[in-house]
Amino acid sequence: MSTSSSIHLIGNAHLDPVWLWQWQEGYAEIKATFRSALDRLQEFPDFVFTRSCAAYYAWVEENAPDMFEEIQLRVAEGRWIIVGGWWIQPDCNLPSGESFARHGLYGQRYFQEKFGVMAKVGYNVDSFGHNAMLPQILKKSGMDYYVFMRPEKHEKELDRNLFWWESEDGSRVLTFRLSDSYSTSWGKPFEQKVQNHEEMADANGHSHMTFYGVGNHGGGPTIGNLEAIKGLQEKLGKERIVISSPNRYFAEIEAAQPELPVLKDELQMHAVGCYSTHSESKENNRRAEHRLLNAEKFASAANVLLGHKYPGEQLKLGWENVLFNQFHDIMGGCSIREAFRDARESYGEALHIAAKALNSAMQRISWSIDTMKPEIRTLSKDKNWLSWEQGDCGTPLVVFNPLSWEVEVPVHANRKMTAVSDEQGYPVAMQTVRASRTNGQDNWDTLFMARVPAMGYRVYWCYLTKEQEAQAVESPVSAEGNVLENAFLRVEFAANSGAIKSLLDKRTNTEVFSGPGAVPLVIDEHHSDTWGHGLHSYRELIGCFTDAEVKVLERGPLRGIIRVTSRYNGSTLRQDFTLLHNAAELQVKVQLDWREKHKMLKLSFPVHVEQPESVSEIPYGYIHREPNGQEMPGQQWFDVFGKSRETGEVRGLAILNNGKYAYDVLGSEARMTVVRSPIFADHYGERDDQVEFMEQGIQEFGYALKPHKGFWHQSDVVRKAYEFNVPPVCVWETYHEGSLPQRMEGLRISARQVAATVFKQAEDGDGWILRCYETSGAAAESDIEVPMLNRSWRAVFGKCEIKSFFIPADASLPVQEVNLIEYR
């Protein structure tokens, strides 16, 4: 019999570390499942076991070292096959691009260190959808192949289950979709499953993979499974029924070189509700991702500039916490309530690790800046109990910018000042604003505009009593009645509904909306389980927030704020619409007190264009999607654009967020999904009076509206989304001598479309890693310079290409390009 259509049987143990149980139970089940697999390897000489998830191995190494050594021997023997290469099987839409890079970095390096091998096969058989940039991320993490199961056939038609999957940059991985379950604990009888797969293999003219073993709560291949395989082999032959691994399967396919289709698309959709469940975990994920990156950047700078110890092990622990919580049943919001309490603790540890590392690095830098003034002889707080200012010398506030381009942003200083100047003594524009405290008369702070270099810092001098004329604001913001206005935008609110009645883009003299904007829509979702199984959209409108109160909070000159408070049943939505004097974006700070059950809240934005198109950020890239009303996952921004109804020119609206991950676009109407309140871990179960609903109570988040002329990639949408998510960080200082100047630029990148996301110590400790990616979908050449390392080079980026540069500590060695696991 020819092996061209053999059945490769894959011994698998699908094991969710968290789902209808907490991680402690998953921890125990992993040990028992690994023991069972080792027992099968002893009992059946032909058996081969396949296992992913570096986190599981790390637990076994920690808690069952003798068994870990046994696994090492089986890996060396070639009968325990390591796949996946990632820390966990994550949700494959919601983590950032850099999180996917870290899954590979920490997963693959762990496997290499402990077992002397790295995974060749990407392996996410239970994840609910797969973003379109994964082929590049997989290839650059050492994996040429990919296995998945969802979306299944009824959710996405494919030409066949074996195909080349290609990302926007041109990277390809050979990909296989399971035609049914990853286990034999549910679904068709085993023999029937194999027979069906035989028919598929014969029809396709190439081999097929069939997974077996008890799954979800572990277990893996059973004695009964292996006895049944013996019978099938006796009946059909060992060439036809092969005890195998994904590695062997893909090697056979590549050797046979069958003609296969190429798919250049995302792999969606399975569970559309998972992108809006459990807002707290999703917001913590976004904050932790950015804070860890910020900590790495300034810890690297502090090490280079001052020899400050780089906290590599602590930061790695923080990342491991984040990566674990990206497991698809945690990140997807479909686990039990107790599991999310655990996730809160884990994210808290990651956030605190990052906060400590960031603070330590920034204060080491700020303490080394020369802030001494000739009048100062010694430190004393004679003037003010809260500040070290003497006379009218001012107090230095060091403003750090983690982003890879210069930013001009408002800085909120928690003191009331009479003046602020830059490091050269030039006054800057400022405004007195309400503080978060109510301490006698001390309830006012200062807002001022700062221009801070890329991945660097700048000192601003803040004065308690000095009279100094502030820099004039050429076009101050106006906030009167129901109208916010600056030189770029005019925003008018409807008095009773609180919706945006008019959003006028003064640059083009056109209305951004075709109807009321920022309308809070309440959607019925009684028909949905927690996952949103079987659904494509949420659009069953049952009400709106109304009974609005519109109130001016701030009147400029730098910033105007109008607060709109509206209500629905027992829920309250408070939106603070903010307009800066120099910005063409309307920023919104939201507090929601949500008391609804089996309902969803969306914010509606009907964009005033014809022939609409939609595009969204995905991990380290973007994707165009049909504006068909389907619920979709997104990251920091999505955009609706088309032709102006008046002029025919292209224009659009980008909607930015700092922690929301779901949206839909129908025609030219964009809707951002804010919250939904299903039952915890409800798979259409019995809905009695003992169930508990998600999302009850207060949550806070932010979004921003950025109208633009031209296409999204011509309008700084990517940069503005990062700026919205990564504000500057500040340190109050005092007078001291130091080796560092009062202004420092950490990075220069000549190509505007290239962004740097990572500056960290190399895992081998012998240099530095700078990671950049092309953001707009067009090839680019760029000069890159890291002044603190006295290094510069030129790089060529393909469309949507991710590049990682290793900068050796030895300055005589050249900068080299490396992959995501930092191998050259």
From TrEMBL:
The keyword Signal does not apply. Keywords: Glycosidase, Hydrolase, Metal-binding. Transmembrane segments: none annotated. The keyword Ribonucleoprotein does not apply. Pfam families: Alpha-mann_mid (PF09261), Glyco_hydro38C2 (PF17677), Glyco_hydro_38C (PF07748), Glyco_hydro_38N (PF01074). Residues 270-347 form the Glycoside hydrolase family 38 central domain. Belongs to the glycosyl hydrolase 38 family. This is Alpha-mannosidase. It comes from Paenibacillus lignilyticus. The lineage of its organism: Bacteria, Bacillati, Bacillota, Bacilli, Bacillales.
